[in-house]
Amino acid sequence: MSQYVAAIDQGTTSTRCMIFNHAGEVISMDQKEHKQIHPQPGWVEHDPMEIWANTEAVVQGALAKAQLSADQIAAVGITNQRETTIIWDRRTGKPLYNAVVWMDTRNNKLVADLAARHGGQDAFRSRTGLPLATYFSGLKVRWLMENAREALAAVAAGDALFGTIDTWLVYNLTGGVAGGKYVTDVTNASRTMLMNIETLTWDEEMCATLGVPRTMLPEIRSSSEIYGYTTEDGPFGARIPVAGILGDQQAATVGQACFAPGEAKNTYGTGCFMILNTGTELQHSQNGLLTTVCYRFGDEPAVYALEGSIAIAGALVQWLRDNLQIIASAPEVEQLARSVEDNGGIYFVPAFSGLYAPYWRDDARGVIAGMTRYVNRGHFARAALEATAYQTREVIDAMEADSGVPLQALKVDGGMVQNELLMQFQADILGVPVIRPKISETTALGAAYAAGLAVGFWQSTDEMRANWGEDKRWSPNMDEEKRAELYAEWKKAVTRTFDWVAQG
Question: 159: Cβ–Cβ under 8 A, 6 or more apart, which residues?
Fold first, then answer.
């Protein structure tokens, strides 16, 4: 009897397989990191074959750790780093270039050119829900078509396939060149700038504008249905329905049971991403947010969301560890930050890949403002954590302006929510409670929910909501005057990220 659902969580820095029971509890987990490739400043790549090999390994590892056989798995769900772009050859199944990662900024000249020729950054927002930015995968496809020799030749021959990581994994799980399914879901398609946000189909005008042939795009499906089956010679060793696909932030929204309009979550990972469920009505942002698909379950209407995307959150802690070597491991940042009472007057704006919401400035660059001789390692660590909280405040301000609804509390998840100093500061700078769920692996859980719903493992969203429970709540204890003073200093520091552009 099938008692569990497996979720493959393919993220920016690692790949995990997690197995859940009906209560949404983690039965087992296996994880492997993959290499971050930086050929030039602003360029970020991953090896798609390494990601696939790691996927095979973690699936086998999770099954072995729980001593489970494949017939105990009801379905497989996939969640993935969104916008990360792969082109591969339909004849060989091999990638034609490394995956270009969502935070990569190599296509900034293309973005500027399109904005100049088509009427500005918001030229396509009404069709796609998105501003012109280096972030989105359709623009990365265009770069690959123009600059990667093997990809260019394959496109010309009609042999090129484009996919985000979800498409790549489903294709390989279901057989690859021997008949693998070539699909994506509406949440990932809504991040390409190639899907019409209203019709939920590939937009012919956008494809023509970006020069992407329709023949190299996967079929757009819902987030919860059976797309195909794993192969017997694959990592599961049996035929199991692949039945759920959600981009990672939408998956976390589902995992947090944010099924009602007005419910929001914030995920603190490599980047930081807040999603507000706006229901089945499309809502375009006037304040620098993205309109995106939140999820679509089977034949039900699509549910939309407003999203605030922050490029650098946990990645800043990794930078302190790997580049500056201020800490030896990421968890050490909290202890180091606690060694000082405040940030020592410094503000760290990590615009390593420009600034995303609400600014959308790919020309911005990181700054540390307020440096004095007084500053030490502890202040660096504290300012790095506070940067995530300040950026989140900026996104929430934009969301409240768009929706007209003030935030009452913030549901949080992701790796950084174990950092209690950060969570308390987040509550302080927002002035509302911050709530961590009992099951913190919400991204993988959301993918499991989507897959389980498709095969009847869970019958309804009410069952999923019943699994959600509060683990810890942080209440604000900072007075309003102090909150306003700190936030004003942060906003001043943000303006410094644009100074180098103005000065040439």
Answer: 89, 90, 91
Cα-to-chain-centroid distance, residue 185: 15
Measure the CA–CA gap between 29 and 63, rounded to whole angstroms: 8
> Are 403 and 306 within 8 A, CB to CB?
yes
CA distance 221 to 281: 20
| Side-chain-side CA neighbours of residue 332 (13 Å) | 12
Residue 269 pLDDT class (50, 70, 90 cuts): confident
User: How does DSSP classify residue 20?
Assistant: E
Contact call for residues 433 and 473 (beta carbons, < 8 A): yes
500 contacts: CB under 8 Å, gap ≥ 6: 365
Kindly tell me the burial class for residue 424, based on how many C-beta atoms sit within 10 Å of its own C-beta (0-12, 13-18, 19 or more): middle
The answer to whether the beta carbons of residues 252 and 442 sit under 8 Å apart is yes
Give me 417's structure tokens: 């929510």
Which DSSP string corresponds to 288-302? SPEEEEEE-BTTSPP
The pLDDT assigned to 5 comes to 97
Tokens at residue 426, please? 């987040």
Residue with tokens 């497996």: 6
435 vs 251: CA distance, rounded Å: 18
Helix axes 248-255, 442-454, angle to 10 degrees: 80
Give the percent of the chain with pLDDT over 90: 73
3-state secondary structure of 426: helix
Helix (H, G, I), strand (E, B) or coil at 101: coil
Over residues 223-267, the pLDDT tens digits come to 999 999 999 999 999 999 999 999 999 999 999 999 988 888 999
Look at residue 499 and tell me whether its pLDDT is greater than 90. Answer: no
Give, for 85, the enclosing helix (H) or strand (E).
strand 85-89
What is the C-alpha radius of gyration for the chain, rounded to an integer number of angstroms? 22
Q: Render pLDDT for 280-309 as a digit per residue (tens, 0 to 9).
A: 988 888 898 989 999 999 999 999 999 998
How far apart are the C-alpha atoms of 504 and 499, rounded to whole Å? 9
pLDDT band of residue 389 (cuts 50, 70, 90) is very high
- Rounded CA-CA distance 77/17 in Å is 10
* CA dihedral of residues 107, 250, 313, 81 (deg, nearest 10): -50
